[in-house]
Amino acid sequence: MATQITDRTVLNNGVAMPWLGLGVWRVKDGEEVKLSVRSAIETGYESIDTAAVYGNEVGVGEAIRESGIARDKLFLTTKVWNADQGYETTLQAFNESIKKLGVDTLDLYLIHWPVKDKYTETWKALEKLYRDGYVRAIGVSNFHAHHLEELRAVSEIVPAVNQVEFHPLLNQRDLLGYCREHQIQMEAWSPLMQGNLQHPLLLELAEKYGKSPAQIVLRWDLDQKVVTIPKLITPERIRQNADVFDFSLEADDLEKITALNENKRFGPDPDNFNF
């Protein structure tokens, strides 16, 4: 069980990844993303998750350098965007990302979405980057089990991570089970349901544990051994969401939150997305 912000899960290749990280989706490049990343690092976060399509890799890299924290103390993730998928174009996109970030290597590189007829070739590019030592771990994002099965049939390396929309209204039990069976670490994006936290049960549990509804949901993630990367901007909220390591949810309460599932997505369905 994660009991402090520096606690890490061990991925299927032996690399240690923090349980809690900062997501910067829809955070503007420049001062806004730099403030977010700096505040997170000052609070003790050791994982930053960005993506090429977010358009803020430059600011993320600048904030990391300005923090004064040694590069090897931070876990940095970015993703190849759909338009860049394919073997050669993925390699080019990776080079562009590390140039913008101002780093030589990444801790985790992900395929952002399973673009049909492209993601297997994209994965082969990620395998090359991994073998050549440019990336410590490779994984995918928004992959259903059938995408992972197709990848498994043609690949040599099992994805270390599958980053998907995951929250109390979309608990993805079947996919979570598949990932556990194949030693793929599940990671949650939009864990806070894009702010839709005013559910009576979450409010009730927030009062019971003396926490906010957001903290209850993040603890629910961690208690299920799901890595979580809430998107945050303000220093106060960044600090609040890190304050989830001094309690755990009782088994009955975990089950109650899980039972809220409605298979409701706030983002696109990977099987019905305009790639």
Automatic annotation (TrEMBL):
Active site: 54
Gene3D superfamilies: NADP-dependent oxidoreductase domain
Binding-site positions, substrate: 112
Keywords: NADP, Oxidoreductase
Site (Lowers pKa of active site Tyr): 79
Secretion signal span: none
Domain NADP-dependent oxidoreductase stretches: 20-262
Superkingdom to which the source organism belongs: Bacteria
An annotated Gene Ontology molecular function: oxidoreductase activity, acting on the CH-OH group of donors, NAD or NADP as acceptor
TM spans (from-to): none
Entries under Pfam families matching the protein: Aldo_ket_red (PF00248)
InterPro entries: AKR, AKR5G, Aldo/ket_reductase_CS, NAD(P)_OxRdtase_dom_sf, NADP_OxRdtase_dom
Entry's family note: Belongs to the aldo/keto reductase family.
Protein name as catalogued: Aldo/keto reductase
